[in-house]
Design brief:
The complex is a heterodimer of chains A (230) and B (212).
Chain A: E1 15-19, E2 27-33, E3 36-47, E4 60-67, H1 82-95, E5 107-117, H2 122-136, E6 147-153, E7 156-159, H3 163-168, E8 171-178, E9 183-187, E10 190-191, H4 195-223
Parallel strand pairs in A: 4-5
Antiparallel strand pairs in A: 1-2, 2-3, 3-5, 6-7, 6-8, 8-9, 8-10
Chain B: E1 9-10, E2 15-18, E3 22-23, E4 27-30, E5 33-36, E6 40-45, E7 48-53, E8 65-73, E9 77-81, E10 88-91, E11 108-116, E12 122-125, E13 131-132, E14 137-140, H1 146-150, H2 155-164, E15 167-170, E16 175-179, H3 183-195, H4 202-211
Parallel strand pairs in B: 3-7, 10-12
Antiparallel strand pairs in B: 1-6, 2-5, 4-5, 6-7, 8-9, 8-11, 9-10, 11-12, 11-13, 14-16, 15-16
Chain lengths: 230, 212
């Protein structure tokens, strides 16, 4: 059965990732995930501000998620709200296990994710882009962190919900993984799923993440195509 | 068992090798397997594996010569911004300041890193041949591309010096001090090296640019 936008149940939307797009950031990434358009910028490692957050044995990670007022149909009031703070927090939790934080004690890594156009799945696209931006900034990581959502629409478990499916569907479950060790670093859900459906949805989302991962690697390799070093 | 070739382009998490290999910078070991932890180029020298990063901030290392900006004045010395997440300390006994001279916030120094602690408390030494910068210009490039600017056995920097007549001092932290000769041209050439560091045939292009 085809979905509302003509995809199969296990098909991702079209994803384009480009690394190193912002001049003034230490690392950056632009992602187009279906109709989502998102910039991620990484600054650091740098001196910790405010100073009391400093940890003498490792770096700290701060994430900011922001939606542009024009990113959604109805104008969004600018500035951080409950949802943006929450997404910033879960993004930090999703990315931190992959970063080798003890390499840079007493420092801070800042990630800023700016959503220019939103069409469901912005946190997944944000994490995917942020992790490419981290690699682009030369920050040591165990692995890249791909992220992808699955959910339930019309009693069927499907991958990567679009906006209509997200609004009218029965459940949505974003997942982020560290592919190398198969660890899950983000797992959220809203809606209702049975136990079997949850397991099925997680497995499907992980398969989606692995596809996203290959795109991340491609994007990074593309930036340095033909690279050579003394 | 080696899973990559020498001079391969890798990304964080790429499986490099397994077994009897020594892992160096840009890599990490987990459960006996060696992986890359940065985006970069692999170097395999017999049993040694390292990944040279193409990006990243400068991290202080003992013995490096760096250029820094005085950022804060203390009673017995100065704090120096060395273009890194970590500030360095310069004690007043480790620099020679003439009777009619002074060292204030905003001044620049060329110094050697004498000590870096576990938590990156860094101390500098700036007596001769190091010291306060009093002429010329300072530009900034990525610290990861400093080896490219110097070139193999100093070939690149020698080329630029010959063509422009400038005296160039490169800090490991990516600050470059240029004085004398055609300073603006030298600065442009250095920025070109920074921009095109990863594209092959760089030396020829710099030569062309400077001969124009």
């Amino acid at each position: 059965m085809k979905r509302i936008d003509g995809r199969d149940a296990e098909e991702l939307r079209e994803i384009n990732i480009e690394a190193g797009v912002l001049k003034r950031a230490d690392g950056s990434c632009y992602i187009e995930w279906g109709k989502n358009k998102i910039y991620a910028a990484v600054y650091g490692p740098k001196q910790v501000l405010p100073r009391h957050l400093e940890r003498s044995d490792r770096a700290i990670l701060r994430c900011r998620y922001n939606m542009a007022p024009f990113s959604v149909e109805e104008r969004k009031r600018p500035g951080p709200d409950r949802r943006a703070v929450e997404i910033g927090k879960v993004m930090q939790g999703a990315l931190e296990p992959a970063i080798l934080m003890h390499y840079y004690p007493k420092s801070m890594i800042e990630i800023s994710v700016e959503v220019l156009e939103a069409n469901a799945g912005t946190r997944c696209a944000g994490i995917t882009a942020a992790s490419v931006a981290l690699a682009d900034a030369g920050i040591p990581m165990r692995d890249l962190v791909p992220s992808c959502a699955s959910g339930k629409v019309d009693d069927q478990i499907v991958l990567d919900l679009c906006k209509e499916e997200d609004n009218e569907g029965q459940a949505d479950m974003p997942v982020a993984i560290i592919p190398r060790s198969d660890q899950i670093t983000l797992l959220q859900m809203d809606g209702k799923l049975t136990e079997e459906e949850v397991e099925k949805a997680i497995a499907l989302a992980i398969r989606g993440c692995q596809k996203v991962y290959t795109l991340q690697v491609e994007a990074l390799k593309k930036k340095y195509a033909g690279a050579e070093y003394e | 068992m080696l899973h990559i070739k020498n001079k391969d382009m890798v990304v964080p998490g790429t499986f490099l090798a397994e077994g009897d290999y020594i892992h160096e910078s840009g890599t990490y070991k987990e459960q006996g397997k060696i992986y890359a932890n940065v985006v970069g180029i692999t170097y395999v020298d017999r049993r040694r594996i390292r990944v040279v990063s193409l990006e990243g901030k400068y991290i202080p290392k003992q013995g490096d010569a760096v250029i820094g900006v005085i950022s804060y004045e203390r009673f017995n010395g100065w704090k120096v911004d060395i273009n890194s997440p970590y500030e360095a300390l310069l004690s007043d006994k480790d620099i020679y300041i003439g009777r009619y001279d002074s060292l204030k916030v905003g001044d620049m120094v060329y110094a050697r890193i004498v000590r870096v602690s576990e938590i990156f408390e860094t101390s500098l030494y700036a007596k001769r041949p190091y010291g306060k910068l009093d002429n010329g210009i300072v530009i900034e490039i990525h610290s990861a591309r400093v080896p490219r600017l110097i070139g193999r056995k100093g070939s690149m920097i020698k080329l630029i010096k010959e063509k422009t007549g400038s005296i160039i001092t490169v800090g490991q932290n990516g600050l470059v001090w240029i004085r004398g000769g055609k300073k603006e041209l030298t600065a442009k050439a250095c920025h070109m090296v920074d921009r095109e560091a990863h594209i092959p045939g760089l030396t020829d292009r710099i030569n062309d640019f400077l001969s124009r």
